[in-house]
What we know:
The protein has helices at 2-5, 39-49; strands spanning 7-14, 26-31, 59-60, 63-64, 68-72, 75-76, 92-97.
Amino acid sequence: MASDVGLPLNIEFSGGAEYLFNNKKKHSITLPAGEKWTLGKLIIWIRDNLLTERAELFVQNDTVRPGILVLVNEADWELLGQEEYVLEANDTVLFISTLHGG
């Protein structure tokens, strides 16, 4: 049963966001089984498990900070319910930073 092994996901970072994650653009992860995983929970998990520096450039008030676009399977998360979207096995979640220094 797939739920016993966890929830496999593909996490990607682009637009400079990858610099906060040890310059790695793609991550294949498996979230622990036994609970319903939403995008909101995933963001906290990413902050606690993948983020390597400057958390304030990725999260603000337990969600992604303004200026970071979130796509799930190429669909804007705003169309899916944002933090409330329930993740499914093998979803691809892409975080794109639109923040640029000057």
